[in-house]
Amino acid sequence: MHDAYAKILGSFQIPEEYIPIFTALLKKAFNNANQNKQSIQKDLTKRHTECKKQIDDVNIKFGLGKIGEEVYSATINALKDQLAGIERGLEENGENLSSLTKFVGDAFAYVC
Questions:
Q1: C-alpha distances out from residue 107 to 10, 18, 26, 69, Å
Q2: pLDDT tier at 1, thresholds 50, 70, 90
Q3: Distance, C-alpha 62 to centroid of its chain
Q4: 38 and 96 in contact (C-beta within 8 Å)?
Q5: Under 8 Å between Cβ of 40 and 86
Q6: Residue pLDDT, tens place only, 56-71
């Protein structure tokens, strides 16, 4: 699918006078994508910290005998599943896009 899309884009030519506009649009798209990824990363990191704290709290309560083994097992399993999902999200969200210059250059390589 990606190759077919690249081939279609390759058949277009951007007139010289539109290149600054196209560049500005690409920069805006790049910055928006990075801001979105940063926002998601921040939220996931916060949730990760909270979940780890909840796991620690449950372990302490169990160790002090404040909750029984059945409640502990159900709670710790649910929290570990939640933590695994958050960690997958952090991994999938990954780092920001490549550099702005590379992003714009790659886009121009397809259409110019």
A1: 10, 14, 8, 57
A2: very low
A3: 34
A4: yes
A5: no
A6: 999 999 999 999 999 9
Residue in the structure block whose two tokens are 């590379």: 102
**How far is CA 48 from each of CA 44, 53, 55, 58, rounded to the nearest angstrom?**
6, 9, 11, 15
94-99's contacts with Cβ under 8 Å and 24+ in sequence apart are 94/37, 96/34, 96/37, 96/38, 97/30, 97/33, 97/34, 97/37
- Residue 35, H or E segment: helix 19-63
Domain regions of the chain by residue span: 35-97
Say which residue, 96 or 44, is predicted with more confidence. 44
